Amino acid sequence: MKRLSKYVLDSYSLIAYMEGEEGAKIVANVLKDALVDKAEIFMSVINWGEVYYIVLREQGKTAAELYLKTINRYPIKIIDVDKSLTLEAASFKAFYKMSYADAFAVALAKVNKAKLVTGDKEFKAVEKHIKLVWI
């Protein structure tokens, strides 16, 4: 049996997809692969919440709720954080210039041996630890 490709989405990639920004096609292809059981997609609950607060702040509650409903329609596994994942994220945050939420995306990618899909240049610093798919 062929192994599934594994991906982690950060808030940057998901918002870029939802708003049809540059790189949206790359995210769309990852989502299509997951819909036909060729890929697994993960997102930490921290990054999921980050999508919500960004859209809530910029576009209001109706738009933020719509984003969550849309995310729920896709085969994206929202991963709750535990102590182990939190310590992994904290280790990245301690030594790399990135937001705490971004550190969770990196940690989730590392733990799941997944490629992180992003357009956020902040992640360039951790390329030696995880594989990145740039949008």
Secondary structure elements and their pairing?
Elements: E1 5-9, H1 11-18, H2 24-35, E2 39-44, H3 45-59, H4 61-73, E3 76-79, H5 83-95, H6 100-112, E4 115-118, E5 131-134
Helix pairs in contact: 1-2, 1-3, 3-4, 5-6
Explain what you see.
There is one protein chain. This protein has helices spanning 11-18, 24-35, 45-59, 61-73, 83-95, 100-112; strands at residues 5-9, 39-44, 76-79, 115-118, 131-134. The mean pLDDT is 96. Helix content is 55%, strand content 17%. With 135 residues, the chain is α/β, with parallel strands linked by helices. It has one domain: 5'-nuclease (Rossmann fold). A five-stranded parallel sheet has the order 3-2-1-4-5, sandwiched between helices. α1 (11-18) packs across α2 (24-35). It is built from six helices and five strands. 36% of the residues are buried.
Supply the helix-strand structural class. Answer: alpha/beta
Under CATH, the topology is which? Rossmann fold
Q: Using the 3D structure, state the CATH architecture.
A: 3-Layer(aba) Sandwich
Q: Which superfamily, in CATH terms, is the homologous superfamily? A: 5'-nuclease
Low-confidence segments? none
Oligomer: single chain
The rounded Rg comes to 14 Å
Q: Order of strands across the biggest sheet?
A: 3-2-1-4-5
Measure the end-to-end span: 29 Å
Overall residue-averaged pLDDT value:
96
Broad CATH class: Alpha Beta
What's the number of helices?
6
Number of strands: 5
**Biggest pleated-sheet summary:** 5 strands, parallel
